[in-house]
Amino acid sequence: RIVAYPFERSCWVSMATVSSAAASKEKPAPLPMPPGVGRRPLPSAPAKAAAQPAAKPTTAAGAAAVAVPRPLPLPAKKKQVAMSERQVRVCQRAVRRFLARRTAEKRAIQRTRVVEEVLTTERTYVRLLNMLINVYCTPLKEIADTPNHIVRMDNVKLIFSNVTLFISVNELLLKQLEERFANWGPNSCIGDIFMQLGPYLRLYTTYVANHYAAAEKVNEKMSKSSFAAFVKAALNECGQSLSSLLILPVQRIPRYQLLLREVVKLTPADHVDMKALSQALAQITAVATGINETIRERQEFEKVLQLQKQFTGYCPPLVAPRRVLVKDGELTKICRKAPKVRHFFLFTDCLLYAVRLDPAMMYKFHMLVSLSNAVVKSVPDEEGKHRFAFQVLTKEKSFTICAKDEAEKAQWLESFTHVLEALVRDKSSFVKMAATVNLASGEEKSSDCDSEPAPVWVPDQESVGCMLCHSKFTITHRRVRNTKSTHLLTTLCDTASLPAMWYGGSHKNSKITTTAHRENCVQRLQWKPLLPRQCERARAGVWLLF
CA-CA distance, 209 to 302, in Å (whole number)? Predict the structure, then answer.
């Protein structure tokens, strides 16, 4: 027989047998394996017949068919060695020490990269600051006092502020960082450098507070041809625009805070630099907070100033120290004759309402009331009356306001609550300080904290008769509004002329316009009013004694 040897030794097949098997389309019979081949022994003929009955061959060639060989046997499993509990703990400690050592090495590498970034960014920052001073600031200063000046000296100081002061601080910081990084190692420190120079970084607060005005002045001067030509020539020389250089000091302090926070994060707790880094980060965070507060106050100031420009006609000055616009929106104010839509502006110390003039986004001023000693209370919804209402009670004026829905009402009440609570805190601190001064000087001053707010006016449509005597309004008994109680009364119930000596007044024919005052006079002097039928003079409201 001619035997073919394929790539796998397990497939030794006779060519004649394969051809006969292919002709009969039957599985070939197994051939004996060569010696030395690691194969699983084939089952014997009786066992194979018991497991599965063999199919009857249809041809003589099919009887000699060769079966497909089986795969190689699986390797034997390794014997597991039992470990004691002590050996397990030792192995775990070794693994933990290895992982901790590898983590510490990675954190040290990352810490070195962050410190290198601090040094690189500081080097770039100092270079750009020198460019700002040498290319823009110094040339403008040199000709500021000459007849050929581009901008005056006051404008130069406004644009560049105190940039020449804190550049010396940054140059010193850069020098110390370069010296420290030249011999950098796992135990090197940079926290002490920032701690020494941290207080000087407060110079940035003045620059940031002045930056918005400087940017506006630059935009204003760009319309001048000489200044625009100077800026263009400087841009061609250094490759950096004036606006991009002026914004750099504003962005630098937050960058310090971000980088130092990352260094602290990558520094081990037992590192020698950990304490100094934490203190330096606290200093720079305080400076950054002050700068952010300055920026926020400036933005709020600009918002109020822009609102002032949107009023036509008379409007009191809205710009005031610590005055911030808290909330604004359209609400319905319950007026004497009919409800009217007004645009309300809630500030930190007052409330303003006006009429919006569409579509120019302009406003017509109506009234500004102080929120000192003010009270805001919710009005429950009643049938036949206005819904989602609340009242603002102040010493100057009190009125009712209606919102569009319950959610808007809740938002306004929450804003009023925050404003009034802040006013109470500020007032309590001021009162304590004033009390200390008064005790030291021995003086006493009265306060109007307990003064009652003005009453809320009753709309005309809510009553068809006098709210005191319940008589209907007629031509002779006209409807009038009491200026103190704001109730709707008749002319007979509202006005009364009494001699001044009867109630302790100083004027000869003073008018009693409040019902409470009138009742007090009647009880104290035992006066009784005459009815209109009993005395014609009662129409003038004269009070006589029985």
Answer: 13
User: How many whole angstroms separate alpha carbon 426 and alpha carbon 319?
Assistant: 19
Phi-psi region of 58 (alpha: psi -120 to 50; beta: other; left: phi over 0): alpha
Query: For residues 59 and 27, what is the distance between their CA atoms, to the nearest angstrom?
Result: 12
3-class state of residue 325 by DSSP: strand
Tell me the pLDDT tens digit for each residue of 213-255. 899 899 999 988 899 999 999 999 988 999 999 999 999 999 9
**pLDDT, mean over the chain:** 75
Cβ contact 223:111 at 8 Å: no
Read off the pLDDT of residues 26-35 as tens digits, 9 standing for 90 and up: 455 555 555 5
Q: Are 280 and 191 in contact (CB under 8 A)?
A: yes
Give the closest residue to 134 by CA, choosing from 145, 122, 126: 126
Give the pair of three-digit tokens for residue 26: 């039957």
Which amino acid is residue 173, in one-letter code? L
246 burial via Cβ count (<10 Å: 0-12, 13-18, 19+): buried
Q: Is the pLDDT of residue 439 over 60?
A: no
CA angle 210, 216, 217 (to 5 degrees): 85
Please state, as a whole number, how many other Cβ atoms lie within 10 Å of the Cβ of residue 28. Answer: 20
Give this prediction's pTM: 0.58
Q: How far apart are CA 345 and CA 326, in angstroms?
A: 8
> Using alpha carbons only, what angle is made at residue 127 by residues 126 and 128, rounded to the nearest 5 degrees?
90
Terminal alpha carbon distance of the chain = 157
Amino acid code (one letter) for 400: T
DSSP state of 527: -
d(C-alpha 435, C-alpha 264), whole Å? 46
The residues that bridge with 456 in the sheet, in sequence order, are: 398
Provide the pairing of β-strand 528-529 with 543-544: antiparallel
User: Given the structure tokens 């407060």, which residue do they identify?
Assistant: 202
CA triple 412-403-458, angle to 5 deg: 105
Pair 111, 267: CB distance under 8 Å: yes
For the chain, how many residues are written?
Answer: 546
